[in-house]
TrEMBL record:
Domain of life: Archaea
Role according to the record: Part of the Rad50/Mre11 complex, which is involved in the early steps of DNA double-strand break (DSB) repair. Mre11 binds to DSB ends and has both double-stranded 3'-5' exonuclease activity and single-stranded endonuclease activity.
Name the UniProt record assigns to this protein: DNA double-strand break repair protein Mre11
EC number, UniProt record: 3.1.-.-
Molecular functions per Gene Ontology: 3'-5' exonuclease activity; DNA end binding; endonuclease activity; manganese ion binding; Y-form DNA binding
One biological process term in Gene Ontology: double-strand break repair
Biased composition (Low complexity): 392-403, 463-485
Gene: mre11
Amino acid sequence: MTRVIHTGDTHIGYQQYNAPERRQDFLEGFRSVVDDAIDDDVDAVVHAGDLFHDRRPSLLDLQGTVEILRTLADADIPFLAVVGNHESKRDAQWLDLFADLGLATRLGRDPQVIDNVAVYGLDFVPESRRDDLEYDFAPVPAEADHATLVSHGLFEPFAHANWDTEHVLETSSVEFDAVLLGDNHKPDTAEVADAWVTYCGSTERASASEREDRGYNLVDFDDSITISRRGLTDTREFVFVDVDLEEGEGVERVQERVRQHDLEDAVVIVTLEGDGKPVTPATIEEAAIERGALVARLNDRRDLPEEDEAVSVSFADPDAAVRERVRDLGLSDAARSIDETVRNDDLVDSNVRESVERRVRELLEDDASAFDPAPERSPDDEDVTTVADQLAGTPATAEPAGTDESASSASTPVEDGGLETAPKTGDLEETGETDETNDSDDSDDSDETENGAHAGETRESSADSTESTTDGSGDGDTTSLGDFA
């Protein structure tokens, strides 16, 4: 029997809530997995992407990761991995560096054989680059009884999916009997086209919506494949305090509920529902910190009316004022679309940058002038569509030019605007580059959304742009798996 640990989404370097302690927690989560691997003497540790939270991890994060990988190598346990969207760079990957040090193997189209299991890899590939992707892998070696694919992305039939798993399996040159995935932080398993498809989940909570215990998968390859779940017991405690306020209840009731919990060194997430009086977040958060909490956040989901009319601002014609400001700023339709997405509460803070880069590229591909300043118009022109119009759901008299009505990402355009999968050194002929713009901010101080896949809950993110050519047929429009390996 061959036993491997399937882990992923360790997000080393993520300074969640701007707390250095949380940054260390993500490194220690990875260390716990490796310690378990050594204690159990598994045959390999397979990492399904997003080892790092950022494509530019700090020196301390790199040193800590190398130290942990060395303990694994000293135990003669191979570390096999693919590149995720958070850590992907435009040239050589961090995994390539670890491979040069003899600490890791970067998986690709050629299999790595562990006992009787052939393990293949597919790095994260942006959705816009998948249509022409050919799932062409090297043949399974004769000594292998099983073939397993490791990849990173949002695959069907799981939540937030945008990658057709059945298409991958049916068009692949290799018949896989297991697919080990990363990107979705919620662990889950399903059977697709006679193959077991599984997410291992993340090793630390990258979002307040990730309430379940963190952990990883144990995968046993024998006559059949068995996938079991093991939890990590020493991760940072999160205390979730859900309060449904009745009419007339307020701060006192919330504080009473918070006092019922042991908050020492915990991340405390207080969520308010119901009616009741307005509650100032700082009052609850400061009280929790005083009682020993590492971090405290209050999420008030109630739709409360504005009571302080003394500070309200009104215009005789507010829409005209907005139109005037739009004209002065010269915002394009694409820029207004981006503004709306940046303020989208459903988008996890740590994913804004990647989503922005992806959307900017799509807009520029559709229309190279998408971000050109809007023409000067009078604020009372009927064909001016303003942010106020869009937020209010008021249809404009003229359709905005150059926009995609399914727009869901936002920010300012990035230079050269490209998104691409992560290349190996020397594998691709580079014809263009972009700045590395999807680095995550260490100043992230809240991850309190309930929707999203991860990192927390990741939607499709970007890697830097690299165009490639394929060998053989000379068909420049065909992209093979080797281009993305």
